Amino acid sequence: MEVIGVFNAGVTRYLDETILLLRVAERPINDNPEVYVVPLYHPSEDRIVLQEIERKPEYDFSDVRVIRTPERNYLTSMSHLRIARSTDGIHFTIESEPTLLPSGPYESYGIEDPRITLIDNIYYITYSAISELGICTSMITTEDFITFTRQGNIFHPDNKDVAIFPASIGGSYYALHRPSCSHYGQPEMWIAESGDLKQWGNHRHLIGVRPGFWDDGRIGASAVPFEIEEGWLEIYHGADKSNRYCIGALLLDKHEPWKVIARSVEPIMEPETDYELEGFFGNVIFPCGALHEEGLAKIYYGASDTSIGYAEVTIEAIRANLGLKQLNNQL
Amino acid sequence: MEVIGVFNAGVTRYLDETILLLRVAERPINDNPEVYVVPLYHPSEDRIVLQEIERKPEYDFSDVRVIRTPERNYLTSMSHLRIARSTDGIHFTIESEPTLLPSGPYESYGIEDPRITLIDNIYYITYSAISELGICTSMITTEDFITFTRQGNIFHPDNKDVAIFPASIGGSYYALHRPSCSHYGQPEMWIAESGDLKQWGNHRHLIGVRPGFWDDGRIGASAVPFEIEEGWLEIYHGADKSNRYCIGALLLDKHEPWKVIARSVEPIMEPETDYELEGFFGNVIFPCGALHEEGLAKIYYGASDTSIGYAEVTIEAIRANLGLKQLNNQL
Q1: Who among A72, A156, A204 is closest to B184 (CB)?
Q2: Average pLDDT for chain A
Q3: A single Pfam family, by name (chains A, B) (predicted)?
Q4: pTM of the prediction?
């Protein structure tokens, strides 16, 4: 296997360190042009098997990330999660071994796109568990980033982009999530409610795609929401119909987070640099986390499914983007 | 509007009556061959609007139940739920008014396919809530079938065929459910866990479609499971790839209902009669409920999305179908 990308990392603070939980994507090294080789985790044997797929004309290889055959679809790479640590938030040391590897029947295609929420000294890590059974969101908890406890699938397939709010609100926990529908719905953002962070209900549609806008194709939560003066600020991702991914902001009511106060008309950030425009899957900036410190949103984002970028934006600039009055005017 | 079918009814006992909660499907009466007319519930105005759809060549009218356009899909009919009552389980009096009508943003295409679970004197009604936002499963509770309380969406889209077990097992409640996946998974049966019947987690895949069998296309829970000597007996539905719906049985472990003990190799019932073979959507038998009484499963099932049939099968016959030893031999 070779690493083809390190991207879409969850981020948090632990003691005096910034922790990134990296998505590391690997694919088999293959010199045979006659076949594709895809990695599959076999839960019954607890090992990764490399499976050859013939280049049949009826198979669809048009998306570099997926091979579509009439029988089933395969991912061309497999991801695991790995910790990187930093004392300044910029220079990171990547651990030499995977932190979390695929395990069990729901992860045979890999684990992806973690988000980390800290509540009462427990870190709740949500991530996409991909298998031939569908795309579930699973949860793992840790208190120290050394010992991890698997908590099972908290959302049934298909669901991804789950970001849990970092505090209970009116006695309930809330999570943003993104179901995919087969029949009528669009890939849009929903909000769910929980008493224990494991069992979720009261699913409500939160925001939809906007025809003609930068986010008219698909949207989902990116960062764990954080609190500002006016409510909960969510840094989310939206793609247009040509799969160009940008970053926007969403402001939710402080006490009733299922109520939308404001939403970016224009993105707060677009793919611009070489590494954002080109890569394994180009024209993509995709955060899985942001830190809210020093009046800034410090955004760690996947660039083109290949690398990780870092951007700082002032909360004031996000306020302006959202059309909110400047705080100075309110005071 | 005209009624085009009464089918897929939930069933339970209340006092000395058998209660059916009927799915009543209606469509607009339309004399204009130039257009289709579909009913849409508008939640903001709380009324049903009849919308004309041109018969454009690029629209797909091949499925009598659905109109597919590039922008969105429509249902050709709209369903509500209505009570019928009987003292003998055979002769029913249908109430003159709808019991539950579409309401709110998740039901603009109608409400369908109720299941009724009795726990501690409360009836938990789960049903499919269909809208342009997707297919959710919602819950309504009642104690008397006069006053009803809406409990919101308990499963996010797409999900249907939810049947809640009628008792807690080892301190948790369980529900069978059927997600639909856009990317990798099949329409198959899952099981979820809950502490309060409203918030659900620990989603696990239970059984899949079986290539070459009568249930190789799609499967889902039908009746609310009931307890027999060997475990929990589920009367489920399975369709083959040509949409022929049959009824099968599934036996789950009494204490660990996520473990499968036995499953019908052959259906326990297949479409045979005229009214099962032909109708609005023919070749379909589809139960949403069964009563377990007098050593019988009394199955109320939708026939061809048009009418409701009734069948009795002995538990002994189901045991034989499942390949279980006859109880007499065990004693």
Answers
A1: A72
A2: 96
A3: Glyco_hydro_130
A4: 0.96
Give how far A191 is from chain B: nearest CA, Å. 10
CA distance B67 to B55: 10
ipTM: 0.95
pLDDT tens column, B247-274: 999 999 999 999 999 999 999 999 999 9
Contact B195 A194 (CB under 8 A): no
B73 Cβ under 8 Å from any chain A Cβ: yes
Which residue in B71, B137, B176, B182 has the most chain A C-beta atoms within 10 A of its own C-beta, making it the best mutation to test that interface? B182
Does the beta carbon of B126 lie under 8 angstroms from any beta carbon of chain A?
A: no
Environment class of B307 (CB within 10 Å of its CB; exposed 0-12, middle 13-18, buried 19+): middle
Q: With 60 as the cut, is the pLDDT of residue A111 above it?
A: yes
Question: What are the boundaries of each domain within chain B?
Answer: 2-330
The residue count of chain B comes to 331
Whether A68 contacts chain B with CB within 8 A: no
Render pLDDT for A244-268 as a digit per residue (tens, 0 to 9): 999 999 999 999 999 999 999 999 9
pLDDT, average across residues B180-207 = 95
* CB atoms near residue A323 (< 10 Å): 11
Question: How many Å separate Cα A224 from the centre of its chain?
Answer: 10
What's B2-330's CATH class?
mainly beta
